Task: structure prediction
Amino acid sequence: MELYGNDNFTSDCCQWGLVGCTSQKVTHLHLSGLIPSLDLKKVVTSDVLAPLFHLQTLISLDISKNDIHGEILRVGFANISSLEYLDMDGNSFNGSLPPHLFSLWHLATINLDYNLIHGSIPTQIGNLSNLVAMSLYSNKISGAIPPSLFHLKRLGFLNLGRNFLNMELPAETGNLSNIEYLFLDNNNLSGEIPSSIRKMEQLKCLDLGDKFVIWANSHLDFQPDQAFFLGLG
Result:
């Protein structure tokens, strides 16, 4: 990733295949799988990303599948406030989710699958009013989903499967009126499935574990007094 140190990065790199530009300003970076997966390679830490945060015109950033280690840099994301698409899956990011990440008001898609992120989901997630898709599959996220997440009216895809969430599904789950795919499998869910999920008119798949999967509204027509209990891994 020596390209980040290039002084002419913002002027010359628009000719590169992995870079997209508008009016000679970098708007898209597709840097997936650039670091070889070799047993003897030097460990790459998250500090390598610091120069990217000077690209204030960046709209799309894909740094997936690079096995980058360390915590997600906390301050830098506030500098790329126009970001709409962020893909960081398949790395080795650890630590907690930085609140600064949720100051990206334009963010529509975020993918952090297959990392080592722990801690809870910050309440600032509710700031992302334009969020359409978020996936944190296979991390170490714990605690409960913050109530602010259930106010994201544009959210259509949410995957929090294979984490350590320990919670009951609140009635507010039904507020996700545009959700189509909701994956909460392989967590420590308990309690009843709220009847409010009947309000999810766009729902195509609700996965709460291998004992309870709903496809295409096929089982949403249950009565409020019917209790569905969760004890799913």
In short: The chain has one domain: 2-232. Residues 2-232 form a domain with the Leucine-rich repeat, LRR (right-handed beta-alpha superhelix) fold (CATH 3.80.10.10).
